[in-house]
Amino acid sequence: MTSLSRRAFVTAATATLLAGCGGGNGTTSSANAPQRQGSSTPSGQSSAPSSAKTAHALARSVPVTLRVPAIGVDTPVMQLGLASDGTVQVPPITAHDRAGWYRHSPTPGQTGPSVILGHVTVGAYGDGVFRHLAKLRKGDRIEAGLENGTTATFTVTTVRTVAKADFPSDEVYGNVARPELRLITCGGTRTGTGYLDNVIVFATLTG
User: Fold this and answer.
1) Is the Cα torsion angle 36, 67, 104, 178 positive or negative in sign?
2) Other Cβ atoms within 10 Å of 44 Cβ, number
3) For this UniProt entry, which residues form the secretion signal (predicted)?
4) Per CATH, the architecture of 3-35+54-205 is what?
5) Max intra-chain CA distance, the chain
6) pLDDT single digits (tens) 6-54
7) pTM score, two decimals?
């Protein structure tokens, strides 16, 4: 990661995360979130070691597709940067919803946490690409198709639903010694403009 990208990545880690939360009126709502008491995964649990063996890190290559067979996701991947207020951009609210890779994070398969965001709903267009993200379970497979023609295959280690008010920036963006993936969307109770929680999937490169 370049020094510029690293600075932007750290900036995002301390900023409010806008995590793909298209509401019924077509707007997005901010999503920052650590674990809220009473949610589905105990506080402090994050990218726990998987029973599957971690694969060796891959060379840098931008993701162009994302497949999550267990929940029927098969989507192109666009690139996202930082908005003018320092928050992470989100994919546009469109009928043909796509996931978005945060380009200041490692590419999928590089050492570190690669971050991909998607909408849970897209306003009047209905369900978003990550509508069923919370249904993923430990051991499910995620495949990121890369620009160089290879596929980075990840195995889900943890799925967390967390309050936006306590987004676990260190756990999502913090340094890790192996290639990992974060998929993020909104979840929990829906309000007039969005959702109260975030759903975060932690996964480790296994193939």
Assistant:
1) positive
2) 9
3) 1-19
4) Beta Barrel (2.40)
5) 45
6) 444 544 544 444 444 554 433 333 333 222 222 333 333 334 444 557 8
7) 0.80
Sign of CA dihedral 131, 49, 42, 166: negative
- DSSP states along 54-96: PPPPPPP--EEEEEEGGGTEEEEEEEE-B-TTSSBP-----SS
CA distances from 48 to 68, 118, 146 (A): 20, 23, 25
Question: Does residue 170 sit in helix, strand or coil?
Answer: helix
What is the residue whose two structure tokens read 């290879």?
150
What token pair was written down for 9? Answer: 């990545």
- Bridge partner residues of 78 (DSSP): 100
**Per-residue confidence (pLDDT) for residue 22, from 0 to 100:** 53
